[in-house]
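Agenda item 2: prephenic acid complex prediction
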Amino acid sequence: MKKRVTIQGVAGCYHDAAARGYFSGEDIDTIECDSFPALMDALSLDASLLGIMAIENTIAGALLQNHELLRMGHALIIGEYKMRISHSLAALPGQDIDELTEVNSHPMALRQCEQFLLRYPAMKRIEKFDTAGAAREIAENKLTGHAAVCGEYAARLYGLNVLASGIETNKRNFTRFLILADPLVAADLKPGEKDIDKSSIVFTLPHSKGALSKVLTILSFYDINLSKIQSMPIIGREWEYRFYADLTFDSYVRYCQAIEAVRPLTNELRVLGEYVECKNEI
Ligand SMILES: O=C(O)C(=O)C[C@]1(C(=O)O)C=C[C@@H](O)C=C1
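Presented output:
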């Protein structure tokens, strides 16, 4: 059966491209959603849907709210995809860069182009729900004076003219996306144990001396590499934090042992998914 993947954004956005990249060789349908919470709602209403969600970018940093959405939702991570993001400035054909008064895009995309945009103070930055959506709106409503920060593919798809390309602050601009599925579907699509080499977990810690250090020491004892750790404040429990960690490892058995060893030292430990690390970084 053809896979249906919910994306944040409209046709031509980076989520669309990442979904097609992850499932390359397969004919998939992408389902448009206008926000990350809407994407999670769509996943919880239809267990047959898959989802794709950006989680961090090498220039703009983590999408913090998406960590919380993952924790609160019931979908599991079944894979990840890292994609090079290259932005263009696109406007209606015939428009000159000096005529532009407004630039529209996804907040993460605007942040990734900060230095380029600083050169054009006359252009007011307006956040939109996605890059391709911003391009489509300009094209459909014939908005002169407006530009979109979007991918070249989106500019072409909606008939806009590219005024500048490669406008991201740093060329090493990558976004990491997570592939999500309902737990029942995840059980079917999940890689075999010998292929799993990455896991994402979330936990809280008691407020005691060395609590985090003890967890990290145990992980290291089991040869688990901590590829990322992100803390988030716990709302309602002032100055307490929740930790999101990505673990990479060679042995699934050792990883399972490590999880059981750290469990008694943590509170509310939850495995958000076990999957194959994406190696297409460069
Ligand atoms: O607006 C888009 O095209 C998206 O897919 C969103 C998004 C994001 O959420 O970070 C995806 C990748 C880029 O980092 C910029 C924007």
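Discussion summary: The radius of gyration is 20 Å.
Owner for follow-up: CH.
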